[in-house]
Amino acid sequence: DGGITQSPKYLFRKEGQNVTLSCEQNLNHDAMYWYRQDPGQGLRLIYYSQIVNDFQKGDIAEGYSVSREKKESFPLTVTSAQKNPTAFYLCASSRGVTGTEAFFGQGTRLTVV
Amino acid sequence: AQSVTQLGSHVSVSEGALVLLRCNYSSSVPPYLFWYVQYPNQGLQLLLKYTTGATLVKGINGFEAEFKKSETSFHLTKPSAHMSDAAEYFCAVSDTGGGADGLTFGKGTHLIIQP
């Protein structure tokens, strides 16, 4: 089955530690995205990538980093510089063509203690 | 810049009643519009989308939405609510300038179904 896999589903980290969230897709999509979801805030775009080895900052990129070394993979690192990292993180992909929808993974809930 | 406003963070309806979730958008170019549904601790699933053509769009699970350009609206409806419809619903917009820079989402509406 084609889809997007995020792992792990739940992640706990101590304050000050970097943590990397995994996102893999087998849909052969060119574009991939990371969103952050907080209660009552909707989804906010962190980073997106249209092609391999290229990515752009979204609306709330500070404290996050990404890489896109392979078409299928778009890992997100939450660094210690992110002041409020506890949130639900969603990865998505699309064909990157105008009017096409995004497909989402099941999300990773990150809790920093 | 584009934006999406969903009126009502929580909407409560009785089982069997009409569901109406409101979405208004602003966009400097003709938009593409989407409705997604999210169940607790899950990702988002596409309900329906409007790109071009017919302004009344039918989606999954009996939902439909109508694009009204004059009102800059894309409200989601379902004639008869079912308990399984209880979820969070998100309206999203993408402008026609390009599809790869992500969707802009509204803040979501939590749909509550009363038995």
Oligomer: heterodimer
**Which spans of chain A of ≥5 residues are poorly predicted at pLDDT below 50?**
none
Uncertain stretches of 5 or more adjacent residues of chain B = none
- Return the structural class of chain A: mainly beta
Number of helices in the DSSP assignment of chain B = 0
| Straight-line N-to-C gap of chain A | 36 Å
Give the helix level of chain A as a range of percent: under 10%
Compute the gyration radius of chain B: what is it?
14 Å
Instruction: Give the overall pLDDT of chain A as a whole number.
Output: 92
Secondary-structure element string of chain B: EEEEEEEEEEE
Helix share, percent of chain B = under 10%
Coarse shape of chain B: globular
Q: Could you say which overall geometry of chain A the principal axes of the C-alpha atoms support?
A: globular
If helices are DSSP runs of H or I spanning 4 or more residues, what is the number of helices of chain A?
A: 0
Largest sheet of chain B: 6 strands, mixed
Described by strand count, sense and barrel closure, the largest sheet of chain A is:
7 strands, mixed
Report the portion of residues of chain A in β strands: over 45%
